Amino acid sequence: MEQFATTVADLAQKLAAILAEKLGFKSNFFQENCLSSTCYLRMNRYPPCPIPSDVFGLMPHTDSDFLTILYQDEVGGLQLVKDGKWFAVKPNPEALIVNIGDLFQAWSNDVYKSVQHRVVTNPRVERFSTAYFFCPSYDTEIQSCYEPSVYKKFSFRMYRQQVQDDVKKLGRKVGLPSDDQIDDVERLMEIIKQAAKEGAMVVYTLADPSMAESAKLACKLLGIPATGVIGPITEAIASHLDVLPSGLPRGAPGRNFPL
Ligand SMILES: O=C(O)CCC(=O)C(=O)O
Ligand SMILES: [Fe+2]
């Protein structure tokens, strides 16, 4: 295992340097910030599951690092999103899989995309995989390598904390701090007040139900026409199927969300 870690650590450094060079940056950023002490290995074991269509081995997510180097055995189960569809990654025990993580997406200003992936379970066979997460130290500031930047500058510490808080509060990871993402009530209220001044209408999609309630109430008080985009659709489907919407965010409840 130690030998595997040393080999993939070296590989991750080389790959990061090549990807940076492709963007026109001969950078020692990764050598300076992604030391072996800040990277880690995760060993995954997926026991056989009698109800594979109801249970994920690992729910859909993106990795919160720069790069992930993954070794999977011959069982299979890893899937990734391409053009909006899920595709199975054919298992090849002779090969390593390299995933771009959120930090590389932010650093490359969206040139490289953090791939969404998940693991489906197998009814009969257990599966093993080992993932090496290429991460910087907590204090490293992640800033796009060129301007204008799609993302706000953030530290890895702040990002990790945000991911953990979101998973606890919303049952899912929100992800990268995009400049046009509304992530607190204060900013939401500023936007609503601005809309009132300009006589605009507010059309919103807010993942957090309490934020959606606050938006609705503020618009009502200020006399602004407002409508949620996803909420009414969910309600229409619920009424058509004659079931109550669970009110739970995607991914809830209780599944372990990986970093
Ligand atoms: O087991 C796998 O194939 C994927 C593991 C993974 O995505 C993770 O540990 O973040
Ligand atoms: Fe992952």
TrEMBL record:
InterPro entries registered for this protein in UniProt: IPNS-like_FE2OG_OXY, IPNS-like_sf, Iron_ascorbate_oxido_reductase, Kinase-pyrophosphorylase, Oxoglu/Fe-dep_dioxygenase_dom
Keyword rRNA processing: no
Highest taxon of the lineage: Eukaryota
Coiled coil: none
Single GO MF descriptor: metal ion binding
The UniProt record lists the keyword Transferase: yes
Fe2OG dioxygenase domain boundaries: 37-136
PROSITE patterns referenced in this protein's UniProt entry, alphabetically: FE2OG_OXY
Gene3D superfamilies for the chain: B-lactam Antibiotic, Isopenicillin N Synthase, Chain
This protein's UniProt keywords: Iron, Kinase, Metal-binding, Nucleotide-binding, Oxidoreductase, Serine/threonine-protein kinase, Transferase
Similarity comment text for this entry: Belongs to the iron/ascorbate-dependent oxidoreductase family.
Protein name, per record: Fe2OG dioxygenase domain-containing protein
Species whose genome carries this gene: Populus deltoides (Eastern poplar)
